Amino acid sequence: MKAAFFTVFFLLFSSCIDTANAAEDTTLKGGAFDPPRVAPDFSLRGSDSTELKLSRYRGKLVVLEFGYTSCFDVCPTSLAMLAQVRKKLGALAADVQIVYVTVDPERDTVAILKPYLAAFDPSFVGATGNPEQLAQVRKDYGISASKKMLPGSKTAYTMSHSSYLYLIDRQGSLRSMMPFGSSVDDVAHDVRILLNTQKK
After folding, report:
1. CB 178 within 8 A of CB 187
2. I want to staple 121 with a disulfide (CB 3.0 to 4.6 A). Which of 2, 30, 57, 83 is the partner?
3. CA pair distance 7, 29, nearest whole angstrom
4. Which of 115, 119, 121 is nearest to 82 (CA)?
5. Are 112 and 68 in contact (CB under 8 A)?
6. pLDDT tens digits for 52-70?
7. Are 101 and 44 in contact (CB under 8 A)?
C-alpha cells in the first residue's frame, strides 16, 4: 500500500516539475524587446552579389550580427557557435537566416565575405556597403565600432566593436538581443521559441 502511495506521489510530483519546466521554456534567455519593435530595414551589398535587404527574409527568423573577417577571436567564435546552433535546430534551421554585417568595409568586400562565411556555414549571408551606409545601420541597431591602429604600423589595424546577436522574428520585429558568450543551447532555445510561436 505504501509503495503504491509513493509511486502515485512521485508521478504527480514529476508531473508538476515537468509543467514548471515547460512554463520556463517559453521565457527567452536573451534580453527581450518588450514590446517587440520593427527591426530597421537596410539595403546593402550581399555576399551573394545581390542587394541585401533585411525584409528579403520576412517569413524566416533572422539572427543579425555585426563583425569583420579580420577579427581573430570574438567574431569567429560567435560564427562557429551559430553554425552549431543551426545543426542543433535540425529541420528548423531551414527557417533561420544568419546575416553578418561588416564593420570593416575597407577590407570586407563581397569577394572576402563570401568564402569567409561559407567556411562556417554555406547558408550564412554577409553584407557590406560604403562607410556612410554601414554607419547608419550601426546607429539604427545601437552598435559602436572604431578603428584601432596597431602599434608601429601606419596601415595595420583592428576594429573594436560591440558584439550582440539580434533575433528578428518572421514578421520583422526585434524580439531578443543576446551578448557575446551566449551558449549554443541558449541561442537555440530562443530561436525555437520564436519559430514555434510564429508558424508560417
Report:
1. yes
2. 83
3. 34
4. 121
5. no
6. 999 999 999 999 999 999 9
7. yes
